[in-house]
């Protein structure tokens, strides 16, 4: 019985180590010498085959991005106008500093201050960050 379990752990560890990309001999040695502990050891080893596939995929993505950047640089050099990847945002018309921000009604919902963009509940009388007064149409 002992010999059978010894052979079984050696074979199981050999199969698992080959499946993870390691040498079958390492699996046999771990299974024969360590038994159940050898099997646990093989199970917690990182999967080398999956790591290689992930590396290849990242390398292909990086190569694709490099080609795209090179194409954008060539396009920018060939055109007279600089190529912008982001549309410019038109500036907001400046309001006088004491003009209150007008909201439809007080609410428990979160709102953003029009001046500084800080998020806060819509039941306040002013922004806690920049001091902009809030005014409500209904209340």
* DSSP helix fraction: 40-55%
The Rg value, from CA coordinates, equals: 33 Å
Q: What about the largest sheet?
A: 2 strands, parallel
Average pLDDT metric: 80
Shape: elongated
Q: How are helices and strands ordered from N to C?
A: HHHHEEEE
Largest sheet strand order:
1-4
pLDDT < 50 stretches:
none
* Percentage of residues in strands: 5-15%
By secondary-structure content and strand pairing, the structural class works out as mainly alpha
- The termini sit apart by 85 Å
Number of strands: 4
Number of helices: 4
How does this model look, in words?
The protein is 50% helix and 9% strand. With 139 residues, it is mainly α. It has a two-stranded parallel ribbon. Strands 2-3 form a two-stranded antiparallel ribbon.
Question: TL;DR of this structure?
Answer:
With 139 residues, the protein is mainly alpha-helical.
Descriptive terms for the model:
139 residues, mainly alpha, two-stranded parallel ribbon, two-stranded antiparallel sheet, 9% strand, elongated
